[in-house]
Amino acid sequence: MALDIKSYFANIPKKQRFMLLGVLGAGVVAAYVYLLMMPLWSDKGRLEGDLRKLQSDLDQKRIIAANRPKLEAEIKVLEKQLEAVLVKLPEEKEIPKLLTQVNTLGQQSGLEFLLFRPAPPVRKGFYGEVPIDIRVEGQYHSLGTFLDRVSKLERIVNVSDIKISPLQVQQQQRTGRSVVADLKATTFTFLEKGGPTSAPAK
What CATH number should be reported for the domain whose range is 92-190? Predict the structure, then answer.
């Protein structure tokens, strides 16, 4: 059989023999590329993608590590700011004292309270809102003095929905007061996690 193949190749013209060897060589190269090189190239591309991702993750971690002292300092500043804010948010048991203080400021400013009605706290996350409906009579400048004093309280008290109406002339002459004002004062209370509250926030 080997002799037959040898004699077969011996009978093929030289030019065709070179062409046949070239075709066989090209086939071997193609098989090598397809079976060995292409899977390696595919693995190379996948590994390069993984390497880029790992490099990106490493760079991010290096940035975080480099910024860690700065971030820790910022956290400490934020914690101090939070403590300062919480001072302005009284606990629920301190609300009566704050309401008495607001009432006293009004009287000291020369106002007469016709209505002072606080509502139960309304939960707003970690704090509660305590709305207070107020109606007062007095001089216009007395109302201004009261609002100015309330704005300077250490505790947060927001005043809104102010409606001012002049009193009738007869009432002004009788009481010495010129205006009646309806307003809503809202203070805030710090609610411990899971602490009591009257109604959910709407």
Answer: 3.30.70.60
